[in-house]
Design a protein that fits this description.
The protein has 122 residues and is mostly beta strands. It is built from no helices and 11 strands. Strand 7 and strand 8 form a beta hairpin.
Length: 122
């Protein structure tokens, strides 16, 4: 199983960025997908998750209303659209896959990608 995250970069405060994660080696539409992030010196934290069908989503309070998670099962890809970015959004963003049900805990997920760095500059 491989989860390949991409799309990170440097963006100014208030800007937008979309990160993507393409999966291979698994039956993508059997897995819920999640995004987590880890800032330097901090623990990995939940950002957003989406059910296998895309019909259910969940967000951390810190990103609710600014970030949107979506997926395209035909492309085996999950996206995280990030708007109104803040300096505290700076982190390495990881995608993860969990069989069937979405979750908000690191321990819930079976597979992890390598991460993509998002830096929000003030």
């Amino acid at each position: 199983v491989q989860l390949q995250a991409s799309g990170g970069g440097l963006v100014q405060v208030g800007g937008s960025l979309r990160v993507s994660c393409t999966a291979s080696g698994l039956t993508f539409n059997s897995y819920a997908m999640g995004w987590f992030r880890q800032a330097p010196g901090k623990e990995r934290e939940f950002v957003a998750a989406i059910s296998w069908s895309g019909s259910s989503t969940a967000y951390a309070d810190s990103v609710k209303g600014r970030f949107t998670i979506s997926r395209d099962n035909a492309k085996n890809t999950v996206y995280l659209q990030m708007n109104s970015l803040k300096p505290e959004d700076t982190a390495v963003y990881y995608c993860a896959a969990r069989l069937r049900f979405l979750g908000s805990q690191v321990r819930d997920y079976n597979y992890w990608g390598q991460g993509t760095l998002v830096t929000v500059s003030s």
